[in-house]
Amino acid sequence: MFFRAVIRQTKTSRPGRPTSGKRANLSTKKLFRCPFIEELAYGTLPPEKFVRYLEQDEIYCRNFNPQLLQFAESIPDPEERAFFIAFAQASIDTEGAMHQLLIEQYGIDTMASPSRVTLEYNAHTQEALDAGVKEVTLAAMLPCLWLYNCVGYDILHNANLEGNPYKDWIAAYGDEEYTAGLNHVLEIMDKWAANVDDEVLSKMDEVFLEAVRFEYAFWDYGYTGDEKSAFEVR
């Protein structure tokens, strides 16, 4: 099971990472090799591909953000609930400010039509939220939070951002404060995963891996504009 002792926390501020499950390792390695991310890291991604991605991300966030807050407010434990509400709101505010900056910079069409990938990814997290099992809901939402942090952090600390037109996007997701908050999310997920039965663990595995595939499809659609191609790479 992927979520059996799912997260090993590092002792640095670097993002924690899943450490078991060959399918998860293959899925995330494929994600980091996708052309959209590679070219974004080097600053060579054509602007029209970034614009197409950001138009869809704006739509996705308008749906995902309320889902994240609804999930945070539903957590039974008062301390965990307070943390998740604060983390969710801070993430939404930071990402919203970055989006607004890029919308103005690139002339993003905020009324663009959602792609099939966007619609189905939003539906995936909504379905997990509606199921009412907090461990499953977080497993479905985690790739959106975790993978963006890993991408931003890795580029920020390993690439030369001088002259990179996407450095604001990279900096937002690689931010140290966001990384610290996300690592605490992973600690909570680890605790939750250690206290559920195999049926719930299996569902967590399923929804997490499907969300990882949606992330790849999301970035692939930004790169190609081809919905069919995006779903084939899932």
Beta-strand percentage range: under 5%
Per the principal axes of the C-alpha atoms, what is the gross shape? Answer: globular
CATH class: Mainly Alpha
Euclidean distance between termini CA atoms: 20 Å
In what order do the strands lie side by side in the largest sheet? Answer: 1-2
Largest sheet: 2 strands, antiparallel
CATH architecture: Up-down Bundle
Measured on Cα atoms, how large is the radius of gyration? 17 Å
Element string (H = helix, E = strand): EEHHHHHHHHHH
- Unreliable parts: 1-13, 16-26
Instruction: Write down the domain tally.
Output: 1
What would you give as the CATH superfamily? Heme oxygenase-like
Mean pLDDT: 86
Question: Helix count, per DSSP?
Answer: 10
Tell me the structural class. Answer: mainly alpha
> Might you state the CATH topology name?
Heme Oxygenase, Chain A
Helical fraction equals over 70%
Total beta strand runs? 2
Structural key phrases:
mainly alpha, 2 strands, 76% helix, globular
Structural description of this entry:
With 234 residues, the protein is mostly helical. The chain contains ten helices and two strands. It has one domain: Heme Oxygenase, Chain A. A hairpin with an 8-residue loop joins strand 1 (7-8) and strand 2 (17-18). Helix 4 (78-106) runs antiparallel to helix 7 and helix 4 packs across helix 8. The longest helix has 29 residues, at 78-106. The radius of gyration is 17 Å and the shape is globular. Residues 1-13 and 16-26 have low confidence and may be disordered.
